[in-house]
Amino acid sequence: MRRARIGLPLLLLLAAAGLLAGCALLPASHDGATPSTSPPVPITPHTGYPAPTPPHPGSGIVPPCTLDQLSISYSPTDNTAGHAHGVLTFANTGSSECELTGYATVVFGGPDGHQAMGLPSTHDASHPTTAAVASVGGFSTADLTITRASNVQSCTVVTVTVLLVTPPGLDHERVVPIPATEACDDTDIGLLSVSANYIPPGS
Length: 203
What we know:
Mean pLDDT: 79
CATH class of the domain at 67-195: Mainly Beta
Shape: globular
Largest sheet: 5 strands, mixed
InterPro entries: DUF4232
Helix content: 10-25%
Strand content: 35-45%
Region (Disordered): 32-61
Keywords: Signal
Signal peptide: 1-21
Strand order of the largest sheet: 1-2-8-11-6
Oligomer: single chain
Domain DUF4232: 65-195
CATH architecture of the domain at 67-195: Sandwich
């Protein structure tokens, strides 16, 4: 009987201790409100990529030049070792401004009948291929380099006096007079390199 009287208080103490432990495990509440969740964190866009390059101001606004509103001429400038240099001028003789974008196609005109002779011009990347907008009475230009024909092996040298020039974006040519120049009467040889059309500074 003594053991029973001693064991009962111990059992009551153990039960009270369990209740206290259970209460300690319950989450704390504030005035009975349900704990709120954290707001979503906004995603920051990646900023490592460069911004898109805006289009050239004239592109898509000013119409392309037509062959009818262009007058094309050639002016020699200087010579370097094995090359002659000159400028093609594309004058806007029309009644509205227009633009030329990119590279003209230039080929020698043969001595007989001005037929195309040799390979067409390659591209000289000395100027960017942005739109060159010429106002009424204005112009754009392109640099032309001519390799000396006598320096090219297997070249059948002939003398020519014209270029056949197709402006950028067009499919018809103009006959452009040039000073007497040596060329190659060979279908697989090219001597010409042309830059993209550009507006000369100060024009």
